[in-house]
Design brief:
heterodimer; A: 903 residues; alpha+beta; six-stranded mixed β-barrel; 27 helices; 51% helix; globular; B: 110 residues; Arc Repressor Mutant, subunit A; three-stranded antiparallel beta sheet; disordered N terminus
Chain lengths: 903, 110
């Protein structure tokens, strides 16, 4: 049976039944035809033909059984033989299994992550209908400025695009009533939140329509994690009252542990869901189009695509812009944008994950190539044996299948080992991943993972087994038998093929190394960027002044009271031992740790730009803020204690703003006046209505949005003139942050025992957490590249050793004819250099093509950066030549006499 | 209709292999050939023909391809492999030995 039809038979076993039926039917029809010709009637003819078969079903089954039995027997034979061959060389088998298990395991692990994060749909009914709705200001390139209540209502009632839509505002909440106050991560939504998502509570209930009030409602839904943490998983938690920001709420339900809010939160997963209508106190009142402050999630109508919905929303935007020209001036470029919720959550890690997946695939490929070479070398030793077997009549196809079974068995064993290892190490592996990887908690070993593991094991086995198996197919019997004991008949082909394999290994390794090199360079560039502040020896902590539903219960309602509170806190913590300097700022003042608060502004005395309204990031800070962060003063002065509610309203601007409007000298800005529009994302009922401020100083740029973000202009207000409800405490200190955090907590609770202190971290930690993703990608790719380099070195070492061992005869002759050791060395290294050169050239070409996909991960480095390419290629060439050197050197140590006698 | 005589089970393989020595044939053709050449004495039991053919195919003595029959129908044609030829020689030898042995016993009894 030919190899092809045998392999085909293996794969088409399910077609066996139909084939057997066809064959039997043909027989019956032919006899019926003959019977007809012999004179029988059509029915008789057919009946006779049928009858001769007896029970045709039985015949069919028996025939089919023969095929299956034959297949099983052959496979059983092949497996036993393969197992025996593997046991005969335990060293090789062990190394092969370990290498493969590592390669397959790594692939399975990364695939598990890719599958859970990118491929699996979100765990909601009809997840493709869920979208995030953004407000953008296109002309100033400002995105996601938050939505306002009238806009939400318009989207709900006038757009015709959503079957349901909901505001989802992340917030801090102080939980009081226990031994000490605690901070919880809260999410304030409309009452339709849970029904829109299509999820139910595990205990109790979610919201009902009666919970939809203009202000806050009483029922609160808590998360499983919070239930375990705060209530010890008490099943009688329903109906318990908890005090959030001073108001009493009743626990109505507990969500299942698998439920996570599919949108942005402040710091952690949501602890408690509250519902409100956003249309009464304490929400900003009156409800205005310009007061934008919450993210929005919607569910599209069934059958509507995101593109179609976007087109309809664009029409709505045009209509509203015409209807309300004052709220939507053309210069603002207001627009509404939709993005699938899945995209919103995982969009920024998609590239990285795919790059890792491709990289680990490369490593497995390289490992397969190494194994193929090893097997080729082994099969060379068996050429004579194969030739003899073929000569006495062995089926060539059968031999090939036998060899393939060996590699398939090896691969399957490795695959199972890999799966078992990944399964048992799952938790430790998950801890290695960057903590902020979205949907990390959904990574699990599902059937798809098992199928992938099986598929990749078989593919691996075929990949490295095919080459030696096919070599046997091409074995020329006569030449094999005629040649010397080593049976070097096809060795020329084989050698060339081996060297081609090594060259491809080198090419693949080069691509991985260049990728890692580019990421490394990019990370280096990131670190080189000066952030505009000194994160060393700075500890931060956060506090939140409660925001009760009834303003009459708010002790910090007036600016004076809040300013006094911040002043007192600052005085106390500045006096703590170990604290060199202290400052307080609004949450938006925390670099790389918060969402910016954007506000349009206008320079007094300049014509308004009708094309674009300028937008700046606004924060409030105390006088010591810039000293704590070591941000320089460029012109004018910092804030002082005199800048309070009684004094003139003053602001500081940063260099970016100063250069843009006063390009001649920064000091020109001092004394100028500037108007701040209604700030976006203001939940403060004391609205920052457009008021005018005087610039008293220019400070250095702080990269608050990250090293790789463009520098947006910043405007700073004085805390005592604009005291925030949430605050960040900055301390320049060498003291231990944990102890210091405790001390700050004590001081704060001295002033007001209901206020928690949370998120105590050093600035260094915040900055490195910001870079965690890039660092992880770089490290992982670096590890893969290093492994690839190692494998390629082993590969070229092995092939060169083999090459020279086959040519001992030739070397002996050369030396006998007068060649020097150095000549032999030169020739030997030259051989290796050729392989390396081919590999490097191919690798460079491949990199130029493939690194395009890395560009979005690179900062300030081109994907075809010649410096990186050149340096890495040089490094690889050096390593590879070194790996050639040892076998080459050994080749020169050949004694000409023994070499000549060598067969 | 009662079959005239059953073919001994072990000899079916021998007869098939010999039939195919002359060239490729499908199952029905083999039935006709054996029947005709043996002057209707040997009738192949069609219920056991195809299981035997597939068994011999699995053992590697014969190989099969799909082709068009005389009246342009799809039929499966079998042919001898090298291994099959050796098996045929072996079986012929065994059959001759068996026949000679039986003949010896019969002559002796007389």
């Amino acid at each position: 049976m030919s190899l092809l039809s045998r392999l085909a038979g293996l794969l088409k076993i399910h077609r066996l039944e139909r084939d057997v039926e066809d064959e039997l039917r043909a027989h019956i029809e032919m006899r019926a035809q003959d019977n007809l010709a012999a004179g029988m009637s059509p029915e008789e003819a057919r009946y006779d033909a049928q009858r001769r078969f007896g029970n045709s079903t039985l015949v069919k089954e028996d025939t089919r059984a023969m095929d299956i039995v034959g297949w099983i027997e052959t496979t059983g034979q092949n497996l036993r033989y393969a197992a025996r061959m593997l046991r005969r060389t335990p060293g090789f088998t062990l190394v092969a299994i370990l290498t493969l298990a590592l390669g397959i395991g790594a692939n399975v692990a990364i695939f598990a992550v890719v599958h859970a994060v990118l491929l699996e749909p979100l765990p909601f009914p009809h997840p493709e209908q869920l979208v995030r709705v953004y407000d953008d200001l296109r002309t100033s390139n400002t995105h996601d400025v938050g939505m306002s209540v009238p806009e939400l209502w318009d989207l709900r009632d006038k757009s015709g695009v959503f079957q349901d839509i909901c505001a989802t505002l992340p917030a801090d909440a102080n939980i009081t009533g226990g031994d000490h106050p605690e901070r919880a991560e809260a999410l304030i939504t409309n009452a339709n939140y849970f029904t829109m998502l299509g999820v139910h509570a595990e205990l109790g209930r979610t919201y009902v329509p009666a919970d939809a009030l203009p202000g806050f409602s009483e029922p609160v839904v808590i998360s499983d994690a919070y239930w375990r943490r705060a209530f010890g998983a008490d099943p009688k938690v329903l109906g318990t009252k908890i005090r959030l920001d001073g108001d009493l709420y009743t626990v109505a339900g507990v969500m299942p542990p698998s439920f996570h809010h599919p949108g942005p939160t402040l710091t952690t997963d949501v602890d408690a869901w509250l519902t409100g209508g956003f249309a009464a106190a304490p929400f900003p009142m009156p409800v205005l189009r310009a007061i934008r402050y919450f993210p929005v999630i919607g569910r599209l109508k069934p059958g509507l695509s995101v593109a179609q919905a976007q087109a309809q929303l664009d029409r709505l935007v045009a209509q509203l812009t015409r209807q309300f020209p004052d709220e939507y001036p053309a210069a603002a470029g207001w627009s509404i944008r939709l993005a699938p919720t899945h995209e919103d959550i995982v969009g920024n890690v998609r590239t990285e994950l795919f790059v890792m997946f491709a990289a680990v695939g490369f490593v497995l490929l390289i490992a397969c190539v190494n194994l193929a070479n090893l097997l080729l070398a082994r099969s060379a030793g068996r050429q004579r044996e194969m030739a003899i077997r073929l000569a006495i009549g062995a089926d060539r196809g059968r031999l090939i299948v036998q060899l393939l079974t060996e590699s398939a068995l090896l691969a399957t064993i490795s695959g199972s080992a890999a799966l078992a290892t990944v399964f048992s190490l799952k938790n430790s592996l998950l801890r290695l991943a960057p903590a902020n990887l979205p949907r990390l908690n959904e990574v699990a070993l599902s059937p798809s993972i098992l199928i992938f593991a099986f598929f990749i094991s078989i593919l691996t086995g075929l990949l490295f087994g095919l080459a030696p198996a096919l070599q046997t197919a091409r074995a020329d019997q006569t030449t094999a038998l005629r040649e010397g004991s080593q049976g070097a008949g096809s060795s020329k082909h084989q050698l060339r093929f081996s060297r081609f394999l090594v060259a491809s290994e080198i090419a693949l390794s080069l691509m991985l190394l260049i990728g890692a090199g580019l990421l490394f360079r990019s990370f280096w560039q990131l670190l080189e960027v000066r952030p505009g502040f000194d994160p060393h020896h700075v500890t931060t902590a956060k506090i939140w002044l409660a925001f009760p539903n009834d303003p009459k219960n708010d002790p910090y309602l007036s600016i004076e009271k809040r300013a006094a509170f911040h002043q007192e806190i600052l005085r106390r913590i500045a006096a703590l031992p170990g604290v060199e300097q202290a400052a307080i700022g609004s949450p938006s003042s925390a670099p790389m740790d918060s969402k910016p608060r954007q506000s349009p502004f206008r320079i007094e005395g300049r014509a308004s730009d009708l094309e674009r309204i300028p937008v700046a990031e606004v924060a409030s800070v105390t006088p010591g803020y810039f000293s704590v962060l070591k941000t320089p003063l460029i012109a004018g002065r910092f804030f002082t204690g005199e800048d309070n509610a009684k004094g003139q309203q003053v602001i500081l601007i940063d260099e970016t703003l100063a250069h843009r409007y006063w390009p001649n000298a920064d000091s020109d800005a001092i004394g100028q006046r500037l108007q701040l529009g209604p700030a976006f994302q203001s939940t403060n009922t004391n609205l920052d209505v457009a008021s005018t401020f005087t610039i008293v100083g220019v400070v250095g740029n702080i990269k608050s949005d990250g090293f790789d973000a463009a520098s947006a202009p910043h405007i700073y207000r004085a805390v005592y003139q604009s005291p925030p409800y949430g605050a960040v405490v900055y301390l320049r200190t060498s003291a231990d942050p944990g102890l210091l955090g405790e001390a700050v907590r004590r001081e704060v609770q001295h002033v007001d025992p209901t206020i928690p202190v949370f998120d105590v971290r050093t600035m260094n930690f915040i900055v490195s957490a910001f870079l965690a993703e890039q660092r992880f990608a770089m490290e992982l790719l670096g590890i893969f590249a290093a492994v690839a380099l190692l494998l390629a070195s082993i590969g070229i070492y092995g092939v060169m050793t083999y090459t020279f061992s086959r040519r001992t005869n030739e070397i002996g002759i050369r030396m006998a004819m007068g060649a020097q050791r150095s000549d032999i060395l030169r020739i030997a290294v030259g051989e290796g250099a050729l392989v390396v050169a081919v590999g490097v050239v191919a690798g460079l070409a491949g990199s130029a093509v493939m690194t395009r996909f890395l560009q979005s991960m690179l900062f300030d480095v081109k994907a075809t950066d010649p410096l990186t390419y050149g340096a890495i290629a040089g490094l690889l060439t050096a390593v590879m030549l070194l790996a050639c050197l040892v076998p080459a050197h050994r080749a020169t140590r050949v004694d000409p006499l023994t070499a000549l006698r060598h067969e | 209709m009662k079959p005239k005589s059953d073919v001994l089970q072990g000899t079916l393989a021998l007869l098939v292999l010999k039939t195919l020595e002359r060239g490729a044939m499908h199952g029905y053709g083999m039935t006709l050939h054996i029947q005709r050449v043996s002057s209707e004495v040997l009738r192949v039991e069609e219920g056991s023909l195809y299981p035997a053919l597939h068994r011999m195919e699995q053992d590697g003595w014969i190989s099969a391809v799909w082709g068009a029959s005389e009246n342009n129908r799809r039929a499966r044609y079998y042919q001898l492999t090298a291994k099959g030829r050796k098996q045929l020689a072996e079986e012929e030898k065994n059959w001759a030995r068996l026949a000679a042995a039986v003949a010896s016993v019969l002559r002796f009894a007389q």
